[in-house]
Specification:
single chain; 5 helices; 9 strands; alpha/beta; Rossmann fold
Length: about 180
């Protein structure tokens, strides 16, 4: 195992799990970002990114006017790419990279897909959530031999943090990312 990809149905707990893993790995100074839903009066209206160093960006919103759309959401590609450029994850000194998520909206950015490819080809350990439904790029990432694909379910999510943390920690301590 070099990289961990978490997939599953929306709302099953992928982001909760990846947040827990980032918290447990804090001593290794992980870099990356989380995605959270923006809810207004209980209705999902968009998605916000938050980097591990606290920067925030509204990635997509139902009110956003944009030529880049996924469903009813206008996607802010330029801002997303600025955030990625600022984070500069491939050159980060961190040995652990958190990506929540490799999904349809994020993959509208060629810069993002190139960054993901670069990170997966590097000696860093990538822990990422990834869309259940796959298109070309997402499918290719899931098929990589250096990625362990884990489907998160209501039944298995409780014990996953412990087992994944143990595996990643062993890999980091052995300097065995590749």
């Amino acid at each position: 195992m070099s990289h961990v990809l978490l997939t599953g149905l929306p709302g099953v707990g992928k982001t909760t799990l990846i947040r827990e893993l980032a918290k447990r790995l804090a001593g290794y100074y992980p870099a990356g970002f989380f995605t959270e839903e923006i809810r207004e009066e209980g209705i999902r209206e968009g998605f916000r990114l938050e980097s591990l160093d606290g920067r925030q960006l509204t990635l997509a919103h139902s009110d956003r006017k944009s030529s880049h759309r996924v469903g009813r959401y206008g996607v802010e590609i330029a801002g997303f790419e600025r955030l990625l450029s600022d984070l500069n994850l491939p050159r980060s000194p961190s040995c652990v990279i958190i990506i929540d998520e490799i999904g349809k909206m994020e993959c509208l950015s060629k810069f993002f897909t190139e960054e993901v490819r670069s990170l997966l080809d590097s000696s860093k350990t990538v822990i990422a959530t990834i869309a259940l439904k796959d298109d070309g790029f997402i499918r290719k990432v899931k098929q990589r031999s250096d990625c362990r694909l884990i489907t998160v379910t209501v039944e298995n999510r409780t014990g996953l943090a412990d087992s994944i943390f143990s595996e990643v920690l062993k890999q980091i301590r052995n300097g065995d990312s590749r």
